[in-house]
Amino acid sequence: MEQGHDVSMEAIALAAGVSKQTIYNAFATKEDLFVAIVEDSVDRITKVVAEPDPGAEPAAVLATLGRDFMTLMLDERAIRLKRILVATSAQHPRLGALFVQAGPGQARRRLAEYLAAEALRGRLAVADPMVAAEHFFGMMSSHAHLCTLLGVAIEPPIDIDRRVDLAVAAFLRAYGPGTTRR
Amino acid sequence: MEQGHDVSMEAIALAAGVSKQTIYNAFATKEDLFVAIVEDSVDRITKVVAEPDPGAEPAAVLATLGRDFMTLMLDERAIRLKRILVATSAQHPRLGALFVQAGPGQARRRLAEYLAAEALRGRLAVADPMVAAEHFFGMMSSHAHLCTLLGVAIEPPIDIDRRVDLAVAAFLRAYGPGTTRR
DNA sequence: GTCTATAATTGGATAGAC
DNA sequence: GTCTATCCAATTATAGAC
């Protein structure tokens, strides 16, 4: 995970403090080891997104989910994992799908469920909950996501709380109760 | 560009119909060739984003910029280029920055300029034009962007026009003239 | 089970003829 | 300038001793 997708078995054995043959006793090929490591990393890194409290204020729920999402997205381990998944997407699209489901996909589904419930209660004007959830996360994360994957510094340096607050405010203007949907 | 960042000089020479030595006569190292190819590709792929007409309706300007942005983002060549930039980000962050500036960065600056002008005219309620522009592009592209990089199929298949229309509508509710900013 | 030593292959780069 | 043939380093995987 530290050295990226093209790390050698030699380097892995060195870091593990064993010889190559010891690794080959546990994994038949480098591919097998790679898949096992990535699957494990996806489990470790995509920590379960807390289910929102159905009774809480939309602004508070959005802020909490938003901060969790941004923190996960900017986590150095998560960035490394995503780079590896992108670099090997041609050989292992299944691993990419695994990450999407467990990470951003889960966050999106959780928020969409909450938005649907709030729409029924009349506290939000959300026609398509999955689209609205994507709008929320997309507003916050899009630019920073690309930059972190490319190793490009974000100017000005990202302020998570501010980004979250701006996205929450914009989302509530777009999907608040008084809004006319079309 | 077809085979990805780890293509061999052998394969490149074969595709070019020459021998390796012929390539080495033009480029001192594989690195040099790589940088030249990527720089050229960035130029080719990030076609100049049309400057918005200052007088046009916000909804129409947003729809045009949105469609251009989505088309560029989903272009197969652009996806391949981005994968290569991500895979080599540790060795060549400069190339990633080049792409960001020329591609999404340019689109964002163009939209931000337009939004600032419209805010002065009172047709939009935009406090921070760069943030608002990022909100617009982020709403449309975020999820699809990650999926295309990872080679994961988007379910349901993406409908550019619909995504653009939904983002334009949400943006205008959030940043339309009647909106209360905070 | 683990280690050292060693295939066997690949791939970047070069030599030397034409 | 271009080609063929070759060098050399790195890397995956295995053999065989302990």
Task: Give the SSE layout.
2 copies of one chain form a homodimer.
Chain A: H1 9-16, H2 20-26, H3 30-45, H4 58-74, H5 76-87, H6 93-121, H7 129-150, H8 160-175
The first copy, chain A, binds a DNA duplex (18 and 18 nucleotides) through helix 2.
Named at the architecture level, the CATH assignment of chain A is Orthogonal Bundle
Strand content of chain A: under 5%
- Per CATH, the superfamily of chain A is Tetracycline Repressor, domain 2
Number of domains of chain A: 1
Helix content of chain A: 55-70%
Quaternary organisation: homodimer
CATH topology of chain A: Tetracycline Repressor, domain 2
Output the CATH class name of chain A: Mainly Alpha
Put simply, the count of helices of chain A is: 8
Which runs of chain A of at least 5 residues are low in confidence (pLDDT < 50)?
none
Write down the overall mean pLDDT of chain A: 94
Your description of this structure?
Two copies of one chain form a homodimer. With 182 residues, chain A is an all-alpha fold. Chain A has one domain (34-175): Orthogonal Bundle (Tetracycline Repressor, domain 2), CATH 1.10.357.10. Helices cover 70% and strands 0% of the residues of chain A. Chain A is built from eight helices and no strands. Chain A has helices spanning 9-16, 20-26, 30-45, 58-74, 76-87, 93-121, 129-150, 160-175. The longest helix of chain A has 29 residues, at 93-121. The model of chain A has no long low-confidence stretch (mean pLDDT 94). At the A-B interface, helix 5, helix 6, helix 7 and helix 8 of A face helix 5, helix 6, helix 7 and helix 8 of B. Chain A binds a DNA duplex (18 and 18 nucleotides) through helix 2.
